[in-house]
Design goal:
By secondary structure, the protein is an all-alpha fold. It is built from four helices and no strands. Helix 1 crosses helix 2, helix 1 packs parallel to helix 3 and helix 3 packs antiparallel against helix 4. The structure holds zinc ion.
Amino acid sequence: MSCDEFVELVTAYLDGTLDEATERRFAGHLAECDGCDRYLDQIRHAVRTLATLPDQSLPAQARDRLLAAFRDFQRP
Ligand SMILES: [Zn+2]
């Protein structure tokens, strides 16, 4: 799996919607790529922070926008 593909799949991974084979490839890339390991940590931290906000300040698309911003930030 490439870093680009990893980044594309992060949201699905966090949502638990990856199929088994893809999740294995995802975990495999995570184990061998420090950059993506750190990237996933940042995403998790951001999602946790958002989750502590009151519901009304976190419309569903806010999280998606944040994740998209991370994705764009990560791109070369
Ligand atoms: Zn990577």
